[in-house]
Design a protein that fits this description.
- The chain is of the alpha/beta class.
Amino acid sequence: MAGKVFFSVSMSLDGFVAPEPPSVDDFLTPGKQDEPDVRRWMKQWGELQQWMFPLRFFRENLKLGEGGEEGRDNEIARETYERIGANVMGRRMFDLGEQSWPEEAPFHTPVFVVTHTERDPWERPGGTTFHFVNDGIKSALDRAREAAGDRDVRISGGGETILQYVNAGLVDEFTIALAPVLLGSGTRLFDGVDASRIRLEPVRSEPSPRVTHLTYAVHPR
C-alpha cells in the first residue's frame, strides 16, 4: 500500500514560512554573514524555527552531539522524520541548502529536486542522494513514491513548490507548526492557493510551550 504525500512546515502567525530573502546574492556563503540584510534574514529564520533547535532529535539528526530536550515537540519531530521514505523539493530550496547543509545532509532518503536543468545524481554520506527531475512535479512525485515504497513522501519545500503540489491535488495531509512570531513579509504558504478545489479536515491541534501543531487531511472540494 502506498504511503501518503504530506508536507510539514513552521509558519508565522501572519502566514509566512520564510522571511523576505536578502538582496545579497549567495547570502549563505561565509563571507556575507555580516551583511545587515543577511543578519535580518537569519534572525527571523531563527525565530520561526526556534522550537526545533533545542530538541534531542534535531541535535541527533544534524550530528551536533548528545543532549537536547525531550517532550512532545521532540516526539513530533521524530515521528515526522520516521514516516518519510523520500523527499521532494524545489530547486531554490536545494540551491540554498547546498550552501548550508553539512556534508551529511539531514534527509537520509532519496531526494527528488524539481528543476529545469539536467544534472547527475548527487550522493551524500548518510543515505541522501539528490536526483534532479526536469519533467515536472508529477514526474518527481512518481519517482519519489516508487523510492518510498509503503512509506510517506514529504514535499519538503519551499513554499512555492508546496503550493504547486497542493493546487495539483497531490497532497494528502499537512502539518503546520504555528510559531508565535510575526514576520510582516516573506513567502506566504497559501498565497495563490486554489481554494475552490480544496477541503480541509482537522486531524490534530496540539499546543506546546513553543508552537501549536496543526494537522489537516486534504480532500477535493
